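Minutes, project check-in
Item: structure for the 371-residue chain
Input as provided by the requester:
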Amino acid sequence: MKSTIPLNPISGKIIVLFGPTATGKSAVTLELVKQLDIEIVSADAVQVYQRLDIGSAKPGQKTLSSIKHHLIDICPPNDIYSAGRYIEDAIKIVKDILSRKKIPLIVGGTMFYIKALLDGMNKLPPADPSLRSSYVSKYADLAEEERSIALHKELQQLDEKTAARTSPSDIHRVIRALELIERSGTTLDELFAAKENNRIQGLRDLAKDNAWQIIEFALNYEDRAILRQKIAERFHQFIANGLIEEVKQLRIDYPDLDLNFPSIRAIGYRQLWEYLLELDASGIDENSKEGIILRDAMIEKAITATRQFAKRQVTWLRSWGGEEGNEGTRVTQDIKEDIKEHKSYVSLDASLAASLNADILIKQVLELNNS
């Protein structure tokens, strides 16, 4: 049962809760639901895919059926869901929630999605599956790493600047760049410049036009060692919960799935997919001594990759406040003017209880509303 916090004083507010993986965003969200009339708008690039449940820490069916969530389980794993699609979908949903006098809570750890949703982005052509397939099949006889290098060399010949800022190992972005260059006949810099007048408006611009107020909260551990430990514990729990079996079933049900799809390139899924491919190629029994060694190595690779991803998320947070090195305003400081000017977000300490962080968040929203 929700508390008696009145709805009208905080209508027109958009709450954004973001932070590195494994910081307890979902737990804080569940506490907020007890006190506010909110609907959740997911900002997670993996949870959009159906059947990728365990490894994405997707809310369970009981939670999804009792609390309104948006942009979860909206496309099959063999689809390609882009940031452009996300912005357009999320903005429609946010507008609808606000029109019903409820509060949209945008929550997730896909920082690119959140930044694009808030600031907008250039509108680009959607991915072309047939063109993408032609690039993949062009070097089908090569191993994945060699194929990535060959495609990256093509990109270098067509657009040196884009190639320089795109990792050869990120085959999805390499192919997307090649696709855009082929369809536009220009470099990406030229394409983006031409698209400046065809931008998808972000929530910040829309908020100015509609008298909405966006309030941003970042959840993070002050002690990085705690985050590293939480990441390891969480992935081991994924394995215990059946992540390996989940991926095995994906391979059976979607025979066209491979590492070219964003769903399977997601951290954790990628390492597990490669592990299963290695078992297939070697003929090693997964329950043998050699198989267990391979499994343990896969787990360590996934944990390491997740920690590296979390480090990038933390770096992103440091640059988000608008000033060099700003990690956000602590909740004990006067943050009202900073939020009004979008100079900063409010930092919440993930080591605190989820209920306490929810109370702090609500207090800040109400205080800002009354200022």
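Outcome recorded: The two ends are 28 Å apart (CA to CA).
No further action items on this chain.
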